């Protein structure tokens, strides 16, 4: 199983405050707006606070990528634990997954930062490695969920499912707020019942 990204519980309160502010800046302005000054303003801290912890913009990008990856991995691990309690219950699996995705879409800062950083990672090998660690972890978890549910599974099948999840999340962000819940429910039901077919054993 792939190693998990650095855990967010190890962060000092001030560092967490800065990274939460960075998430908000990226959600509002994209990576173009991510500067030390912008983070300080968002956090309500004196100018120079962010640069005291993260001296360069690259250090800020790396720390934010680790923070996003660790937060998402923690959510996925929690989902996996919940699903272990209902093996074979496909409807329950869809419901729990939809509940997580709905929270991600409603609390959109984390998801928007993940999308922005994924694009940046396509041009930055260091960020790409951090994102790959989180993605591999997600593929491992999804493969384990499919196995526990008695479904046909493989790493390739799980990776396809994860890529489809990415598309559903992005599409949900583009929907009117009132339409997102129904869209997620329909899309996940279709995807998870079609891709996670019963094993042929």
From TrEMBL:
Residues of the HTH tetR-type domain: 12-72
Residues annotated to bind DNA: 35-54
GO MF, one annotated term: DNA binding
PROSITE patterns: HTH_TETR_2
Domain of life: Bacteria
UniProt cross-references to Pfam families, sorted A to Z: TetR_C_31
InterPro entries per the UniProt record, alphabetical: Homeodomain-like_sf, HTH_TetR, Tet_transcr_reg_TetR-rel_C_sf, TetR_C_31
Keywords: DNA-binding
Keyword DNA-binding: yes
Name of the protein this chain belongs to: DNA-binding transcriptional regulator YbjK
Protein source organism: Nocardioides ginsengisegetis
């Amino acid at each position: 199983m792939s190693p998990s990204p650095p855990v967010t519980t190890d962060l000092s309160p001030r560092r967490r405050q800065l990274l939460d502010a960075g998430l908000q800046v990226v959600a509002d302005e994209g990576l173009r707006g991510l500067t030390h000054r912008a983070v300080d303003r968002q956090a309500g801290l004196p100018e120079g606070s962010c640069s005291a912890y993260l001296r360069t913009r690259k250090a800020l990008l790396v720390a934010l990528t680790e923070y996003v990856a660790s937060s998402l991995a923690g959510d996925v691990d929690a989902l996996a634990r919940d699903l272990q309690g209902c093996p074979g219950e496909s409807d329950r699996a869809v419901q729990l997954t939809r509940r997580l995705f709905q929270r991600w879409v409603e609390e959109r800062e984390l998801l928007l930062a993940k999308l922005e950083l994924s694009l940046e990672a396509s041009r930055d090998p260091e960020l790409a490695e951090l994102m790959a660690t989180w993605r591999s972890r997600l593929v491992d978890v999804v493969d384990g969920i499919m196995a526990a549910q008695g479904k046909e599974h493989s790493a390739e099948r799980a990776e396809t499912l994860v890529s489809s999840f990415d598309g559903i999340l992005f599409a949900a962000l583009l929907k009117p707020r009132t339409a997102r819940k129904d869209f997620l429910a329909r899309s996940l039901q279709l995807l998870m019942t079609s891709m996670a077919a019963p094993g042929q054993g």
